[in-house]
Amino acid sequence: xxxxxxxxxxxxxxxxxxxxxxxxxxxxxxxxxxxxxxxxxxxxxxxxxxxxxxxxxxxxxxxxxxxxxxxxxxxxxxxxxxxxxxxxxxxxxxxxxxxxxxxxxxxxxxxxxxxxxxxxxxxxxxxxxxxxxxxxxxxxxxxxxxxxxxxxxxxxxxxxxxxxxxxxxxxxxxxxxxxxxxxxxxxxxxxxxxxxxxxxxxxxxxxxxxxxx
Length: 213
Prior knowledge:
InterPro entries: Schlafen_AlbA_2_dom (IPR007421), Schlafen_AlbA_2_dom_sf (IPR038461). The chain is of the alpha+beta class. It is built from 7 helices and 10 strands.
């Protein structure tokens, strides 16, 4: 029995949060958003030369690698590092591009209006990171750390989370009677401190208490 190639085994998983298939790369700006999303979330792999249904079509030239390189060097800020490996699978070449979880978030890529935005990976999609996430990443990287005053809004936030699974920024504004700016700063402080984490529900970012492992 012929041994299966590791890439074939990977393809069988289907596309998910850490795996994306591309038949080809024809737009470096567009693929830069995927690099941003992987780097800002849990990392992941791009398999180029693979159709959406998992069929291996192979890449036609070295151009695919250069498109990825251009996406990283020209259209992500800071530059998203990657490694690339070419695999020969039954005479067809698949380019595997690996992006590690980033250490210098937020990684941004150009959107359709040519503005730099940060993306996150949710299931098999790239979605825009909101202001709370971007602010929390910036605060987390500050050498002086984050100092949060425990006042009434924070007490109301945790009272809510004691009874509910998660909270949105709009709910927090209503529950704590604070404006968007204040809510954004409190949530991003708590995210930077590791007290809260985010999940995505129906493409909306909400916040939960971080469970201690």
